[in-house]
Design a protein that fits this description.
seven-stranded mixed beta sheet; 24% strand; 38% helix; binds S-adenosylmethionine; alpha/beta; 7 strands; Rossmann fold; 6 helices
Length: 197
């Protein structure tokens, strides 16, 4: 039996105590520890970044010489000087490209995506939308990630997942799938981590 939804589970409490905006930060911390993603001075793109807990963590890890760009369709409260925030839709490639030109960014060291579509409750629809958004992240990452740079993407498991993963394995190297400990018991999300050739 899956456990019922607990808004005040231990991860949410820990996030509140440690000053993070969301419990999801602990998923990124675990992925970072395992895959050694983030270092001082890196340029990082975070897609679907609101309310900003991943960016809070990224900002500390990359330090003042690094730069993070966070995008989301909803506003994000300011985080730090090295974090630039944009209200943008991941599906709007032209607007994303214009923003990157304005930021004078030609390459990222790491691309992150914790994007979750607004769920309809219909599992197949939500899963398909999650894959569609994640494919848009991959298109951008193919273009802007440096060779050897890592891309981390949340994606909902379901009917389209195997085909999605097959394509990632075809086009990227060192593809791994993981479910961090802070993932809710009832969730069908996983994280795909891959490296650009
Ligand atoms: C789980 S939250 C991200 C949490 C974030 N990693 C954090 O630590 O605070 C998922 C986000 O994806 C965003 N999102 C959904 N569809 C999007 C789209 N088309 N473009 C950009 N962001 C989107 C949602 O607005 C939401 O804020």
């Amino acid at each position: 039996m899956p456990k019922p939804y607990q808004p005040n589970d231990k991860w949410s409490q820990k996030a509140a105590e440690e000053g993070y905006r969301a419990r999801s930060v602990y998923k990124l911390m675990e992925i970072d520890t395992r895959f050694r993603l983030l270092r001082h001075g890196m340029t990082v793109l975070d897609c679907g970044a609101a309310p900003g807990s991943w960016l809070q963590y990224v900002a500390q890890k990359i330090g003042p010489k690094g730069k993070a760009i966070g995008i989301d369709t909803t506003d994000i409260e300011p985080i730090a000087d090295n974090v630039h925030l944009y209200r943008l839709d991941m599906m709007n490639e032209a607007a994303l490209e214009a923003m990157l030109a304005q930021e004078n960014i030609h390459q990222f060291s790491v691309v992150l995506s914790d994007i979750a579509p607004n769920t309809t409750g219909i599992k197949d629809v939500d899963q398909w939308r999650s894959v569609e958004l994640t494919e848009a992240v991959l298109v951008l990452a193919q273009k802007y990630l440096k060779p050897g740079g890592k891309c981390v993407m949340k994606v909902f498991r379901g009917a389209d997942f195997d085909e999605f993963l097959r394509k990632v394995k075809r086009d990227w190297k060192n593809v791994k799938v993981m479910t961090p400990k802070a993932t809710r018991d009832r969730s069908f999300e996983v994280y795909v981590i891959c490296e650009k050739h």
